[in-house]
Specification:
The complex is a heterotrimer of chains A (230), B (322) and C (392). Chain B is mainly α and 322 residues long. Chain B contains 11 helices and no strands. Helices cover 74% and strands 0% of the residues of chain B. Chain B starts with a helix and ends with a helix. Chain C folds into 2 domains: 196 residues, no CATH class; 155 residues, no CATH class. Chain C is built from 13 helices and 12 strands. Classes of the chains: A alpha/beta (230), B mainly alpha (322), C alpha+beta (392). At the B-C interface, α2 and α3 of B face α10, α11 and α13 of C.
């Protein structure tokens, strides 16, 4: 089977008035279906930029990016957006919940463009909240949740569309140690469900991950090395 | 100042048209930019900016279409209400013939709605594809729309600015009534043959649409529009007015006739436009438009049923034909 | 189209963020309220005038001498009757009578006992009272306004007019005119034709004007031409012309209001534009999150479109409803005086509820087009918010 993500010669630069900032300098990467990949690197090494491009949130300046066999770099907006909605679940560094929405409404945001029936949406939202262990707070406003609950709400939202790929950017940066360990359990669940997981982090807690995964080290917009851990 | 230009409705109408035009200019500039700079394969920021801007053009055109769609009946309504100011006029027919710009304006208006709806249809298919295949047709056509709307705006002001309220005009009975012995119908048709033609063209058109004979269907929808105009003015209309001598395409927009003109002309033009737009899209873009063609046919059918019902209701209420 | 899920999100963005919309809605309601009040009053007055004029004769024949209206010889009647297509020609004696103090004026209308047409109309007004009895003595019918004016000056059951020859003629107040079309007849006095002649100084054998009807609409223009060529000093005024004259005077007032509206609308648009532009910074993030989670630009535009439609329709219905109550139930205090003026016997009009399509559609267009026009670009800017926003 072909890899779920294939990246070749990916470059991303910003043209500032003063100079051309090269943030990604030719990335080659391929991720297998069901693989868990940890992107490590210091702050500013280009992790977020790489994740954004894989998720179709940002456009590459050069190179080839295939996700699920689709060349997402040049997809028109409506196709790209719907592709993103169906195939990719996002867990953001700052949770990015809509503060004045309830947990339930937050979780249903990705389902809205899909034109599903109301009951079906409700059912999927229930499911996702159960899996992320946040069902008991379904009617609470997102603003009132604790850090750990916000994280679980975000995860419920990420998996509500049943995507193949889950992308997490610094998922434990705002969590205490106890919640961070809980997050590792959830990751394991996702892994067991067969999801492809891509995580950008510089948190050492991921060294205690107890299932097979790949660690990719990034520095200054380039991949230094990658190692598989059983 | 010309009292016509002081009329509240005329002012609101011209105000609306002018605002739309400002947006059209904006969209025109962006379109030119897109036509010149567009490079789909480019990864540059400029290209992505153009893609975002293209959504502004789409938004503007949707806005323009929606408002034009509302302004068309409002225009008819306005000139109808002006009949109190123009000597001799009894309904919009007289007012629109107050100067030579009137009819031209009406035609351009209908054509603008037709072209705009076609543009929106092309846009729909353009967005459905993954590589904006029709962007050149789309923005090229927009340039044409812009020229047309410029003409329309000029005609708007030329028409309303040049209605002389001291110059008597003819009323509809003089404009559409039969002069002694003269037959107003085309090709020397009589009413009976015209009606036979009307219904048979309708049936043929329906069959052509359902069997996907596109080019022939396009020709027949034009023919149907043509024959329908005469049939409504010289036959079905008389049943709306319940008077065999009252022949006018405009009076039926009035309250006395329950504004039925809006339904009759609206369904006719809406149906024919939708059908023709769909066929044109099919032929030019090579996309599947069978669904919208069916909606067009449905609207045409509503039209045929409405005008037939008017006649039949009269027949049943009065026990006799006109 | 909207399914239930989208409706739910629409409700969330309209009512969940009601503080964002509150000022917009209040402002819109105010604009629509002012707009519709003015248009409601004007269409109500227009309606009253039009229906009153509708009952009038089709054409009036006058005589103009040296640019002034002159008395019309009765002999013209023969010439007029001779024209084919003319129906029911009747001579009229009427004119303005100016009272001395402060120059108030009455409209005196003389009624001929022998004129059956006039009598029919008059019997309707007088109703049960005996017509002959009324016409045989120095009796008059006065409008409610005139009566109360006289009463204030202690003329409770009669009033002495100073005739054109300088003698006083005492007329008894026989009855008060019914109060139906007060707008046109608020200063009317109806009296027998001979008394009217004396008071107005119209010689025997002369009248103020003739009125006539033309049953066939198609002949009107032609007959007007024919009449005009009867005498060098004849002037023909058609009903249509008087309607147009009234229309024009209302347009003039509306034109004045329209200028005010333009200023109001320009301010309104500017405020809207500013509000929506400012809300960009707060919404940019939320929309960025939506976009990152799979909403396309089109999805966002659709949501925003419906949001605006809800706000526009909601404000429209509220504003028009309030204006309806203000104009037709509260009878438009203050605003009515601007329209009707407070000159000679300012009419005590009850505004008849007239909801016509023209006023309603005009209000809608005049409000909705500038509204959408001013928020269109800010909304587009919000809709194309970069989904990368969510990653920052
Ligand atoms: N819009 C931009 N213009 C210029 N430089 C940028 C822009 N966005 C990000 N960068 C730069 O790209 C580099 C990588 O950022 P990022 O991908 O967020 O790294 P990480 O997530 O590893 O901390 C940083 O040095 C940042 O300053
Ligand atoms: Mg980062």
């Amino acid at each position: 089977m072909s890899p779920i993500v294939e990246i070749e010669g990916l470059k991303r630069f910003y043209n500032t008035p003063a100079e051309r900032v090269e943030v990604l300098k030719g990335i080659n990467l391929s991720i297998e279906r069901g693989e868990t990949l940890i992107l490590k690197g210091v702050s500013g090494s280009g992790k977020t930029t790489l994740l954004s491009i894989i998720a179709g949130l940002d456009r590459p300046s050069e190179g080839k990016v295939l996700v699920e066999g689709e060349a997402i770099a040049k997809l028109p907006d409506n196709h790209l957006s719907h592709f993103r909605g169906r195939h990719i679940g996002m867990v953001f560094q700052h949770y990015n919940l809509i503060e004045h929405f309830s947990v339930k409404d937050n979780v249903s945001v990705p389902l809205v463009p899909m034109n599903l029936r109301y009951q079906k949406v409700g059912q999927r939202v229930e499911d996702a909240m159960k899996k992320a262990n946040i069902s008991h707070k379904s009617d609470m406003l997102a603003a009132r949740l604790s850090g750990g609950e916000k994280q679980r709400c975000t995860i419920a939202r990420a998996i509500v569309t049943n995507p193949e790929i889950v992308i997490c950017d610094e998922p434990t940066a705002n969590l205490d140690r106890e919640n961070a360990i809980k997050f590792l359990d959830i990751l394991k669940n996702l892994h067991n469900m067969g999801k492809t997981i891509i995580i950008a982090t510089h948190d050492s807690i991921f060294e205690s991950l107890n299932f097979s995964h790949t660690v990719v080290y990034m520095s200054d917009g380039e991949i230094e090395k990658s190692e598989s851990i059983e | 100042m010309n009292p016509i230009l002081l009329n509240t409705q005329v002012q609101i109408y011209l105000f609306g048209e002018s605002i739309l035009y400002i947006f059209m200019i904006m969209a025109f500039i962006i379109s030119l930019h897109i036509l010149l700079k567009w490079d789909f394969d480019s990864f540059s920021d400029e290209q992505y900016r153009l893609e975002r801007r293209s959504y502004l053009v789409i938004t503007i055109l949707l806005f323009v279409f929606a408002v034009k769609f509302m302004l068309l009946p409002y225009f008819v309504f306005t000139i109808d209400s002006l009949n109190t100011l123009v000597p001799g006029a009894m309904c919009a027919a007289g007012v629109i013939s107050a100067n030579s710009y009137g009819l031209e304006l009406l035609f351009v208006k209908l054509f603008v709605v037709f072209i705009l709806s076609w543009w929106l249809m092309i846009n729909y298919y353009d967005l459905q594809a993954k590589n904006y295949p029709f962007f050149k047709i789309k923005y090229g056509l927009y340039i044409a729309v812009f020229v047309l709307i410029t003409l329309e705006l000029w005609l708007d002001f030329a028409y309303f600015g040049n209605i002389d309220i001291h110059q008597p005009v003819s009323c509809c009975s003089a404009l559409f009534g039969q002069l002694e012995g003269a037959n107003p119908l085309p090709f020397g048709l009589d009413t009976k043959t015209m009606l036979i033609l009307f219904y048979s063209i309708f049936v043929t058109l329906a069959i052509l649409i359902l069997t996907k004979q596109d080019i022939t269907a396009l020709i027949f929808s034009g023919l149907f529009l043509y024959i329908s105009y005469y049939s409504v003015v010289y036959f079905f209309g008389t049943y709306v007015y319940e008077l065999p001598t009252h022949k006018c395409p405009f009076c039926m927009f009035q309250k006395e006739y329950h504004y039925i003109g809006y339904l009759i002309w609206g369904s006719l033009f809406g149906g024919v436009f939708l059908t023709a737009d769909s066929i044109l899209c099919k032929k030019v873009l090579n996309v599947d438009t069978s669904k919208s063609k069916i909606y067009g046919l449905l609207l045409i059918t509503v039209f045929v049923f409405t005008v037939s019902a008017v006649v039949l209701i009269y027949r049943f209420q009065n026990g006799t034909w006109l | 189209m909207l399914n239930r899920v989208k409706l739910h999100f629409l409700a969330l963005s309209v009512f969940g963020e009601s503080s964002r919309h509150l000022a917009t809605v209040l402002l819109s309601v105010l604009v629509i309220f002012i707009l519709s009040s003015v248009l409601f009053i004007s269409s109500s007055i227009k309606y009253t005038v039009t229906t009153a004029l509708e009952n009038e004769a089709d054409m009036t024949v006058q005589r103009v001498r040296g640019g002034m209206l002159a008395q019309v010889p009765l002999s013209w009647e023969k010439d007029i009757v001779n024209i084919r297509g003319i129906d029911s020609v009747s001579p009229r004696v009427w004119g303005r009578y100016f009272t001395k103090p402060k120059g108030k004026s009455f409209l005196i209308i003389g009624v001929d006992f022998l004129d059956s047409n006039a009598n029919k109309a008059l019997s309707k007004i007088v109703g049960s009272t005996d017509l002959k009895k009324f016409l045989n003595a120095h009796n008059m019918l006065v409008s409610a306004k005139v009566k109360s004016w006289m009463k204030k000056r202690f003329y409770t059951d009669s009033y002495s007019f100073l005739s054109a020859d300088g003698e006083f003629i005492k007329m008894n107040i026989y009855a008060t005119l019914p109060k139906n079309s007060d707008l046109l007849s608020n200063d009317v006095i109806i009296m027998p034709i001979d008394d009217a002649r004396k008071i107005l100084g119209i010689k025997e054998g002369y009248v103020t004007d003739f009125v006539l009807n033309v049953p066939n609409d198609a002949q009107k223009v032609f007959i007007e031409d024919k009449l005009s060529s009867l005498h060098f000093d004849i002037r023909v005024v058609s009903k249509k012309e008087s309607l147009a004259a009234y229309d024009e005077s209302f347009n003039f007032r509306n034109g004045f209001f329209l200028t005010l509206f333009m200023i109001l609308l320009a301010t309104f648009s500017l405020i809207l534009y500013q509000r929506y532009t400012q809300s960009y910074s707060t919404q940019k993030r939320q929309i960025g999150i939506y976009r990152a989670l799979g909403w396309s630009i089109k999805d966002i535009l659709t949501l925003k479109f419906y949001e605006i439609v809800v706000i526009i329709l909601g404000s429209y219905v509220t504003g028009v409803g309030l204006a309806y109550i203000f104009v037709y139930i509260a009878n438009a205090p203050v605003l009515r005086d601007i329209f009707l003026g407070s000159g000679n016997f300012s009419p005590d009009v009850v505004l008849i509820p007239v909801i016509d399509f023209s006023a309603l559609s005009s209000i809608f267009l005049l409000y909705a087009i500038p509204f959408v026009a001013s928020v269109l670009i800010p909304v587009w800017k919000i809709a194309v918010s970069d989904p990368k926003e969510a990653m920052l």
